[in-house]
């Protein structure tokens, strides 16, 4: 990746709906080479797609819960089983395999406490191989940065 690719990525992170013409102007290229670079960045998996950022509260899901999960065993099979199960849970916004005393950290959204309780009882607690879970509720978001730093 060169400097122009980095400028393209920075501009797209600020405005994913920018036209190719405006993007080309912003990075100092003509539209056709700019479009080719964007297509290459997509093919290479650097640009993984374009989405709209939706206000979680406005959508009726104001509660964010961080859940630490400890598995009974840390075998590849146990991790794969857990991963397959939670990929089907649309309330799970993020899930990370971690180092340390807990195995997994996930962020779940819910409409309210009753909604979160239903998610736990009907979905997460039915996943085999979980030893323990600890939940923490986010009071507010202090940093919610959509763009990665361009280095």
Automatic annotation (TrEMBL):
Domain of life where this protein originates: Bacteria
SMART domains (UniProt xref): HTH_ASNC
Transmembrane regions: none
UniProt KW Transcription regulation keyword: yes
Domain HTH asnC-type positions: 1-62
Keyword Transcription attached: yes
Keyword terms of this UniProt record: DNA-binding, Transcription, Transcription regulation
Entry-linked Gene3D superfamilies: 3.30.70.920, Winged helix-like DNA-binding domain superfamily/Winged helix DNA-binding domain (1.10.10.10)
UniProt-recorded name of the protein: Lrp/AsnC family transcriptional regulator
Source organism of this protein record: Albidovulum sediminicola
């Amino acid at each position: 990746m060169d400097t122009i690719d980095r400028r393209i990525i920075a501009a797209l992170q600020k405005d994913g709906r920018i036209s190719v013409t405006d993007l080309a102007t912003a990075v100092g290229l003509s539209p056709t080479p700019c479009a080719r670079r964007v297509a290459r960045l997509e093919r290479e998996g650097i640009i993984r797609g374009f989405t709209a950022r939706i206000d979680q509260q406005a959508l009726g899901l104001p509660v964010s819960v961080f859940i630490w999960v400890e598995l009974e065993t840390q075998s590849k099979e146990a991790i794969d089983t857990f991963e397959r199960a939670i990929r089907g849970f649309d309330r799970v916004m993020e899930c990370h395999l971690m180092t340390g005393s807990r195995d997994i950290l996930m962020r779940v959204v819910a409409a309210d406490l009753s909604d979160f309780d239903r998610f736990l009882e009907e979905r997460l607690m039915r996943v085999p191989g979980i030893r323990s879970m600890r939940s923490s509720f986010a009071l507010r978001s202090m940093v919610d940065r959509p763009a990665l730093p361009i280095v």
